[in-house]
Design a protein that fits this description.
6-stranded mixed beta sheet, about 575 residues, nucleotide-binding, helicase, elongated, 5-stranded antiparallel beta sheet, 5 domains, hydrolase, alpha+beta, Helicase-associated domain-containing protein
Length: about 575
């Protein structure tokens, strides 16, 4: 038992609930550590293993101040931060239990406080191109995720198999994990049920301009940077100094390199380490200013060329809102300064599934086309519209079963014998098919099998099918830890006589360890007497032990013991 747990327990008991919550979160305390009172909490926080886990969390300034306090008792301007981590005693020195944990810890190198060198025009142009590419590729990743969320490994990274599929879609394998991290940090995507899903914010982000897209990503990146690289103004220190920001964290060098690479991908640092003009306000903690970046980005276009071969050509980066809608109607074949799209029966059928109509498609394409709507494309849209809705999927009000109906008897017969639909357990019923499987599952199974299915609501009106609706972004992992029950439990055990409670703990620990304990006993005449006992038992309000000096067994009333100190285990 730590001899310094008592003063720390008193400090914890006197602290407010908010201060305790911040302390427990900063020290990585579980929500249910099994502590009974503040004495348990103090002992756990002073345990060498707990202290060793706390040290890697320290910033460079905090680590240097802790070493200074260990020798002089003066932590300087970091006193408050170290106090908040329960690493200092009341007089500002370190706990003796920290001595072992601090052994061999190197003194942190001073961080470079100088501002980064401004980028020259060539470096700025390259950084802008990199930022534009990252934003565009991330948009492609979210578009793919929106239609077909892909699975994540336990650590939140993407599996090799999924990366190969993304590579076929034109996304570089080595960028996938970084892009997923950027999207999650910006709350554009979230990990739900071990799958990456687009959030409502992500769906809106896809339709915003390139500069607005970049602003969201860069600001979010700054907001989630670790403490060690943040400045009091809310910005960050020079990226060259990031590697020294958490000197006692063995995992920090790799993480700092990953963060710096993310900064490079977002165009916040140029390839030569210099700083583009648009990164400066963010580094200083100010709102983003994209004026210098915007002049270097390719101009967006709002018109396309529709061709007789059922393709569309955008003569430049298509405005995001137009691009998102066009890609619900056509499959994009290539992405560059000039992108190409191809219309197929499947792509147009997909547009009807997500709520488009024949007239809506024609009006949209006619409004952005510089060449009108070619006859082959108009025919394909009309033909697909005629087939859409031939198969109706609804719920039978009487039986609760899913019903599949169609005016085309051949389609009913085809579905009844389709081997890909066998898991649905379809049965014939009065010129229709029924199943116990849910309506939405049946609808998407038919859609995947390329049947022109439509969802029908209880009122008989068609419904819009959204297979993967936007999700709400998950809260950060640290925010999910609720310390309120723990704090309430600790306070409920906070009795009025802390001295007596602490004495009982000391005596119990001495008996468990068969330790030699020095006790101060109050005598009837008001004097006190010190005894050196080898503690052997505690019960019925009495302490039993062998008196080392007199070599006799003694039994002392606990109520007469004024203090107890373990001399030797």
């Amino acid at each position: 038992m730590s001899t310094h747990a008592r003063p720390l327990a008193d400090r914890l008991a006197a602290a407010g609930d908010d201060d305790l919550t911040r302390l427990f979160a900063a020290r990585g305390v579980r929500a249910d550590p099994g502590w009974h009172d503040f004495f348990d909490a103090a002992e756990a926080l002073l345990d060498p293993s707990s202290l060793a886990k706390a040290l890697p969390r320290l910033t460079s300034d905090e680590a240097a101040a802790l070493l200074r306090a260990d020798g002089t008792g003066d932590a300087g301007d970091q006193r408050e931060a170290l106090d908040a981590l329960a690493l200092l005693t009341a007089d500002g020195s370190t706990w003796p239990e920290l001595a072992t944990a601090l052994e061999g810890r190197p003194a942190p190198a001073p961080l470079d406080a100088s501002a980064p060198h401004p980028s020259d025009p060539a470096a700025s142009a390259h950084a802008a191109e990199r930022a534009f590419t990252t934003v565009a590729v991330l948009a492609d990743l979210l578009m793919i995720t929106r239609d077909a969320p892909f699975s994540l490994l336990a650590g939140g990274t993407v599996s090799a198999a999924e990366k190969r599929q993304l590579a076929e879609a034109g996304i570089a394998v080595d960028l996938v994990d970084a892009l997923v991290s950027i999207a999650v940090d910006a709350k554009l995507a979230t990990a739900a049920e071990r799958r990456l899903r687009v959030t409502a914010d992500g769906d809106g982000w896809l339709r915003s301009s390139a500069s607005d897209r970049w602003t969201r990503l860069a600001t979010s990146f700054r907001d989630v940077l670790p403490r060690g690289v943040r400045t009091p103004s809310g910005g960050w220190i020079a990226t060259d100094a990031w590697i020294d920001a958490h000197p006692w964290d063995p995992a920090w060098p790799d993480r700092s390199r990953a963060l710096r690479e993310t900064a490079r991908l977002l165009g916040l640092v140029a390839g030569d380490g210099s700083e583009p003009a648009w990164a400066t306000p963010l580094r200083e903690g100010a709102p983003a200013d994209t004026s210098a970046l915007s002049v270097l980005l390719p101009a967006e276009v709002d018109r396309i060329f529709l061709q007789n071969d059922l393709t569309a050509i955008a003569p430049g980066p298509l405005a995001p809102a137009l691009d998102v809608r066009l890609r619900t109607i056509a499959a994009r074949e290539s992405a560059a300064q000039a992108s190409s799209y191809r219309f197929t029966a499947e792509s147009i059928a997909h547009a009807f599934v997500v709520g488009e109509s024949e007239q809506g498609i024609l009006d949209f394409l006619g409004g952005i086309s510089l060449t009108g709507i070619p006859q082959p494309l108009a025919y394909l849209i009309a033909q697909t519209a005629q087939r859409h809705g031939l198969v109706r999927v609804s719920t039978d009000d009487e039986t609760g079963r899913t019903r599949i109906e169609s005016d085309d008897r051949h389609l009913i017969d085809a579905m009844a014998v389709d081997q890909s639909l066998r898991p649905l357990g379809l049965t014939a019923h009065v010129a229709s098919l029924t199943t116990k499987v849910g309506r939405d599952t049946v609808y998407w199974a038919l859609t995947d099998a390329r049947y022109p299915a439509t969802l029908i609501g209880a009122d008989g009106a068609p419904l819009i099918g959204d297979r993967h609706p936007p999700r709400t972004a998950s809260a950060p992992a640290t925010a999910t830890v609720d310390y309120a029950p723990l704090i309430a439990r600790l306070r409920s055990r906070q009795g009025p006589d802390a001295d007596a409670a602490w004495l009982d703990r000391e005596l119990e620990a001495a008996v468990r360890a068969r330790a030699v304990v020095r006790v101060t006993v109050g005598m009837p005449d008001g004097s006190t007497r010190d005894l050196l006992l080898e503690a052997t038992g505690l019960g019925g309000g009495r302490l039993r032990g062998r008196d080392r000096a007199a070599d006799v067994e003694r039994t002392l009333p606990v109520s007469s013991i004024r203090s107890a100190t373990i001399v030797a285990p």
